[in-house]
Amino acid sequence: MLQFRNYRRVTPETIGRLTPVQQEQLTLSGKPVYGRDAQTPAETLEMTFAAEEGDEGEAELWEVVENDTPRYDVWIFDVDSAMVFEAGTATDTGVGMIQNYFVEIRTNKPTDLAKALQNAFRNRPNEDAASNSPALSAYRTAIDAVMSAESDNETRAEDAEESTTTRTTKKATAKKSAVKTAATKKSTLKKTAMPSKKKAKKKTSTKKTTTNRKSRNR
User: How far apart are CA 42 and CA 125, in angstroms?
Assistant: First the structure.
């Protein structure tokens, strides 16, 4: 299971504390996140912290581990966008965050890795170092809203399915009852009609005998 840890907020003043690989990761994040190539990590942060409608932006770096083994380095920009690299390298995994959701960037679909990262980030244990993470707060708020909506939809779907099942059962019972009733009526009518046929046959036979007697007398 993946786990997020070692949160740090990166600013133009703290670039010097990053390793060469982390600085390369930051540089490579410029175009995918902001649509412009960056030649240095400072240029990426310039786009991040460029004043826009009073929002100076955010840049966060996280370490993602599995069984205490580093697996990914995750950069989160402006709360709802992210780049994911193989741990300790500048190799892009192709997965990132778009509007609070981890997806495969090329297809915009949730791959297994994207789902694992999303679950790990949402359920990351609270730590003092990350207690003021804007991305974490915004992400949890967005995901909680989505999960609540999905729960309501599932409840309505279950209610609708139960209602449909009930109506189908009632309809089947009514149909079975109607068929049984019709069969009973048909049987009763058949039994009632049988004596009439016998009587009619007997009467015809009697009439024939009488005619034969008259013929002989002549």
Answer: 31
* pLDDT computed for residue 174 by the predictor: 59
- Treating both helix axes as pointing N-terminal to C-terminal, what angle do 112-122 and 134-217 enclose, rounded to 10 degrees? 120
| Sign of the torsion angle spanned by Cα atoms 141, 143, 147, 153 | positive
Please tell me the distance from the alpha carbon of residue 65 to that of residue 84, in angstroms, as a whole number.
13
Using alpha carbons only, how large is the chain's radius of gyration in Å? 40
Give residue limits of the domains in the chain.
Answer: 2-150
Q: What span, in angstroms and rounded, lies between the C-alpha atoms of 158 and 108? A: 29
pLDDT at 166: 61
Angle between helices 20-28 and 41-48 (to 10 degrees): 50
> Which 3 state secondary structure label does DSSP give 30?
helix
Residue at 71: amino acid letter: R
| Separation CA 95–CA 177 (nearest Å) | 59
CA 166/CA 162 separation, integer angstroms:
6
Let me know: does 58 contact 130? Beta carbons within 8 Å. no
pTM summary value: 0.61
Q: Give the pLDDT means over successive 10-residue stretches in the chain (218 positions).
A: 92 94 96 91 90 68 96 94 97 94 92 96 68 62 64 64 63 60 55 48 46 48
- Asked if 48 contacts 57 with a C-beta cutoff of 8 angstroms, the reply is yes
